[in-house]
Amino acid sequence: MNDITARSEEYRGFTISVTPQKDNDDLWDFTYRLQREGESAAQAITRSRTLGGYAAPETACTAGLEVARTEVDNLLRP
């Protein structure tokens, strides 16, 4: 995986896409995008995490998926 490869999954009616990004001191972080099924791309939510704390892009992607899943859970909370 390189810095332009996104990892995607379906989760609770959303498509989560995470892209690792090179940050300070050769560390990695991520940007993620949430798009609800049936909604346009213009309505998607995009977030960026730039603390630069992961040693590998795969680790940044895994962390990004966890953060995005938590946000989806919070969005769907009654």
Entry keywords:
78 residues, alpha+beta, 1 helix, elongated
Cα-to-Cα separation, first versus last residue = 37 Å
Q: How many DSSP-defined strands?
A: 4
Q: How are the strands of the largest sheet arranged?
A: 1-2-3-4
The rounded Rg comes to: 13 Å
Characterise the protein shown here.
The protein is of the alpha+beta class and 78 residues long. 26% of the residues lie in helices and 42% in strands. The protein has one helix at residues 57-76; strands spanning 7-11, 14-22, 28-36, 45-54. The chain has a four-stranded antiparallel beta sheet, covered by helices on one side. A hairpin with an 8-residue loop joins strand 3 (28-36) and strand 4. The longest helix has 20 residues, at 57-76. The radius of gyration is 13 Å and the shape is elongated. The termini are far apart. 22% of the residues are buried. The model has no long low-confidence stretch (mean pLDDT 88).
What is the strand and helix layout of this fold?
Layout (H helix, E strand, L loop, with lengths): L6 E5 L2 E9 L5 E9 L8 E10 L2 H20 L2
Antiparallel strand pairs: 1-2, 2-3, 3-4
